[in-house]
Amino acid sequence: MKKLLLTFFSLTLVAVLAACGNNNNASNSAATNAPDNGAATGSTTEPVKLVVGASPVPHAEILKAIAPLLEAQGITLEIKEFTDYVQPNVQLDEKQLDANFFQHQPYLDDQNKNNKTDLISVASVHVEPFGAYSKKIKSIDELADGAKVAIPNDATNGGRALILLAKNGLITLKDDTNIAATKADIIENKKNLKIIELEAAMLPRQLDEVDLALINTNFALDAGLVPTKDALFIEGTDSPYANILVTRQDNKDSDAIKKLAAALNSPEAKAFIEEKYEGAIIPAF
């Protein structure tokens, strides 16, 4: 009888252990086959990276200031700095960049026309009033006959400089609203000014060599000049040359680009521009 009971209990124990083993295998199988949505492991979606070309000052500085706004939305901003006005558009068109931030609309229009590109503005950010600087004179009344005056050699900024000279009575143009004006459009030059065309980035370094130089504000700031204090004369706040965020037709409607544009037009961006540049740069939104 004892042997019979012992055999019965042994068989029962084997059955129970087998059942437990099956349950554990089923649980392990379910865990292995369950979809992983990241919640259990704590993993997160990889952030989107935007590569944006920009002039060092002030464009890259503004982008760095709004980078935390984008990080909070899952966007990592990689800023690639340029000291010229050609490569940012070339590399954007070639898809080495996702966007660029360094130029105004007239310059973009000219580049699109000349290079047969189709880049597009998606946000106006700030205005950089264009100014005239000198290390040799304190006012334009001191500008001598035959003085050397340096201006940018690119089409739109050259025209912009000539218009500013005309508005301050130093020359007369056929049309003082024509942003494509060249030296050939000067109809009166009473002081016989020698107007020299140079690459925009070089102008601050030529101040020792010329009597007057008309310099883009980004290059003036980069050279340690303070437009509101150092410029002999400067564009008004009604300047139409707002600096813009530019991208391509194929990504202008992407979520990341829209968020970048919104960040550049945010209250945080406006506050940074006003506090950092103290009127040398003016928000355009």
List descriptors.
285 residues; alpha/beta; 6-stranded mixed sheet; 5-stranded mixed sheet; 9 helices; 39% helix
Account of the 3D structure:
- The protein is of the alpha/beta class.
- The chain is built from nine helices and 13 strands.
- It has helices at 2-33, 56-71, 87-93, 105-115, 155-167, 217-222, 227-230, 255-264, 267-277; strands at residues 48-54, 75-81, 99-104, 120-127, 131-133, 148-152, 172-173, 186-188, 194-198, 212-215, 233-234, 242-247, 282-283.
- The strands form three sheets. The protein has a six-stranded mixed beta sheet, sandwiched between helices. It has a five-stranded mixed beta sheet with strand order 9-6-10-5-11.
- α2 links the parallel β1 and β2 (75-81).
- α2 (56-71) crosses α8.
**Low-confidence residue ranges:** 1-43
Given helix and strand content, the structural type is alpha/beta
Using DSSP, what is the number of strands?
A: 13
Q: Can you write the helix and strand succession as a string?
A: HEHEHEHEEEHEEEEHHEEHHE
Taken as a percent bin, the fraction of beta residues is 15-25%
From the N-terminal CA to the C-terminal CA, the straight-line distance is: 98 Å
The number of helical segments is 9
Oligomer: single chain
Mean pLDDT: 87
Can you tell me the overall shape?
elongated
**What Rg do the Cα atoms give?**
32 Å
Q: Give, in spatial order, the strands making up the sheet with the most strands.
A: 2-1-3-12-4-13
User: How would a crystallographer describe the biggest sheet?
Assistant: 6 strands, mixed
Task: Please estimate the helix content.
Answer: 25-40%
